[in-house]
């Protein structure tokens, strides 16, 4: 394809421009830009030999193989649509995705047969996939994954907007810990390559090895989710080398995917005093990265999302779609040229996701006095306790102000009397004990009585979902399954 907004055209042009420079580096492998393009053209030829049709969905299996992005590029060069899937995904998951994507071709650059047939006939052309770059399957609130269709124009536009905020430079090295089945890992990888940098791949995420790599290797940027930051800090707490980590080349820590607490941000900033911690908010459906919170933004307003990226508009509205007044809680909605084309083959779900051209994020938010956005939780996580609406985040913020609380997670769970009760899981700071009565007395001056946790649990870490993020659904499952013993019962 020769469309200048096509991601394949853009990435192939970068490969030709940077040629002999190292594009991707792993433990025992260095893949140049020339070699990356050559591998991608092998994929392209194999797909054409299998009669890959324009805008045909193609499964691309990935993990931490140095040539995985050649799979993406090869599909785009052949005119197909990338459907990223992890190599370790259970067969039932892959079959479920195939049932929705209707893909007949799969690419695995780690296999001797780079392209395999997984279906008998090409799927019918779908207008929704016209000029589509990717179909990214995300976890739905019902547990059924949704296929988010992202166009070349939209994603390329968002890549430009992201780069205008955080500036990927030639010869910079990005340590890539993030999975490229998810948007965060995809855009950070693509921008590194388009900018002429090098992607550095670890074998796996090990907190102690990560700290060692950041200190001893030339790394300019790393992308992480807050769960990874907490794991690093836990390792660092056992390290006697001091309170800071000397990482002379580390310019940026990019974090997103889950909420970054003020306490965690402060601890990370203390550990890496010469590095910018950039907190990013966005959704797969918006091509990610709608807000950026840089260190000066955090100092001025630690609870805000920070600055919107270029061409991103936002509003906070009530249940009737009317703009909320300052301080009132409503739904955050986003409008930009970078929104998804829709949910794959789900016209009803797609229509429900928009309101007059605004994407309904499902996030509860409020506007601060300076017009910036403060997140208050997910609307589907809203707890209704005795008719009173409570957002998990406001309870979590109060809990995190207690000196003994390292981290916490709050959810609602069904109750025969009040509809739902409030359950709080707390990870104590090292060497600290949590006493229920003391904690309740502390919260009583910070929360209305109906917002007080009914049940309190203690654990060494927050429950983690399959994506590696702290996951409220996992906590709900633990509560419903009776695997947690409450520290204190109903108030």
TrEMBL record:
The chain crosses the membrane at residues 177-201. The keyword NADP does not apply. Residues 13-344 form the AMP-dependent synthetase/ligase domain. The keyword Transferase does not apply. Pfam families: AMP-binding, AMP-binding_C. GO terms for molecular function: acid-thiol ligase activity. Keywords: Membrane, Transmembrane, Transmembrane helix. PROSITE patterns: AMP_BINDING. Residues 394-469 form the AMP-binding enzyme C-terminal domain. It comes from the Bacteria. This is Feruloyl-CoA synthetase. It comes from Caballeronia pedi. The lineage of its organism: Bacteria, Pseudomonadati, Pseudomonadota, Betaproteobacteria, Burkholderiales.
């Amino acid at each position: 394809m020769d469309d200048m907004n096509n991601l394949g055209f853009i990435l192939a042009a970068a490969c030709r421009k940077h040629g002999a420079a190292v594009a991707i580096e792993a433990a025992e492998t260095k893949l140049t830009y020339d070699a990356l393009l050559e591998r991608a053209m092998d994929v392209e030829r194999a797909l054409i030999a299998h009669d890959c049709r324009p805008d045909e969905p193609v499964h691309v299996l990935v993990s931490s193989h140095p040539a995985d992005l050649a799979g993406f590029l090869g599909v785009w060069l052949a005119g197909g649509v990338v459907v990223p899937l992890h190599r370790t995904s259970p067969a039932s998951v892959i079959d479920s995705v195939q049932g929705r994507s209707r893909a007949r071709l799969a690419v695995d650059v780690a296999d001797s047969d780079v392209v395999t047939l997984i279906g008998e006939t090409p799927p019918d052309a779908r207008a929704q996939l016209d000029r589509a770059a990717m179909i990214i399957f995300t976890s739905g609130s019902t547990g059924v994954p949704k296929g988010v269709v992202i166009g070349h124009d939209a994603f390329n536009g968002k890549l430009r907007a992201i780069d205008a905020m955080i500036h990927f430079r030639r010869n910079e090295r990005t340590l890539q810990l993030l999975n490229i089945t998810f948007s965060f890992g995809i855009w950070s990888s693509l921008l590194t390559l388009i900018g002429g940098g090098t992607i550095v791949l670890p074998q796996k995420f090990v907190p102690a090895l990560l700290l060692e790599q950041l200190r001893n290797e030339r790394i300019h940027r790393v992308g992480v989710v807050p769960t990874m930051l907490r794991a690093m800090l836990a390792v660092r707490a056992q390290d006697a080398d001091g309170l800071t980590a000397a990482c002379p080349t580390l310019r940026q820590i990019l974090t997103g995917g889950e909420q970054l607490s003020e306490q965690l941000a402060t601890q990370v900033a203390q550990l890496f005093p010469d590095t910018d911690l950039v907190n990013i908010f966005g959704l797969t459906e918006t091509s990610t990265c709608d807000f950026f919170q840089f260190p000066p933004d955090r100092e001025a307003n630690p609870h805000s999302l920070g600055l919107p990226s270029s061409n991103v508009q936002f509003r906070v509205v009530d249940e009737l779609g009317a703009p909320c007044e300052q301080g009132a809680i409503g739904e955050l909605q986003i409008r930009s040229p970078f929104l998804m084309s829709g949910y794959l083959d789900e016209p009803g779900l797609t229509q429900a996701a928009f309101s007059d051209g605004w994407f309904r994020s499902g996030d509860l938010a409020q506007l601060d006095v300076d017009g910036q956005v403060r997140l208050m939780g997910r609307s589907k996580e809203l707890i209704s306790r005795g008719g009173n609406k409570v957002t998990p985040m406001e309870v979590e913020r109060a809990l995190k102000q207690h000196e003994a609380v390292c981290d916490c997670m709050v959810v609602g769970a069904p109750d025969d009397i009040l509809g739902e009760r409030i359950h709080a899981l707390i990870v104590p700071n090292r060497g600290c004990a949590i006493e229920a009565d003391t904690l309740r007395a502390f919260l009583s001056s910070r929360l209305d009585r109906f917002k007080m946790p009914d049940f309190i649990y203690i654990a060494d870490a927050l429950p983690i979902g399959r994506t590696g993020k702290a996951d409220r659904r996992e906590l709900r499952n633990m509560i419903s399954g009776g695997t947690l013993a409450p520290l204190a019962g109903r108030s």
